[in-house]
């Protein structure tokens, strides 16, 4: 019923509904049993949040943050695959989007999704915009699988010349060396 779900979202104009109603809708979604399928949750993440988040030019409202946090609490995998991936791949500065992803990483996402966000950061060319997201992930002090940690270190080493004057890059390298000093040789 995925085309029907997209059609229903369009019919209900969920992508443009007032943000206070978005909070109510997300609360209703969380109460559903059984839980939504992964695909249904991904469609809803896209329909409810993607346009709103990508168009942010100022910090999100408290209603939008509440809706995002509640949706993330139950459907964080599809949320990360749809919304966080889109934000990370969006060209340009995207300062508000980056801050939003950092806040979600720091406060809302489960450890497995925090690792997923780091793997998503490492899948795209590293940029000044992505450095704070990686820093937020490391700030959670989650145990990283060896292959993800190795990819992080390799990426940081390869990108060093491009970020020779970047304070964010220096902070990120310092965080890696501090938090994972026993793994760095």
UniProtKB/TrEMBL annotation:
A family per Pfam: FA_FANCE
GO CC annotations on file: Fanconi anaemia nuclear complex
Coiled coil stretches, renumbered: none
Protein's GO biological process: interstrand cross-link repair
Occurrences of domain Fanconi Anaemia group E protein C-terminal (ranges): 4-184
Protein name: Fanconi anemia group E protein
Species assigned in the record: Spheniscus mendiculus
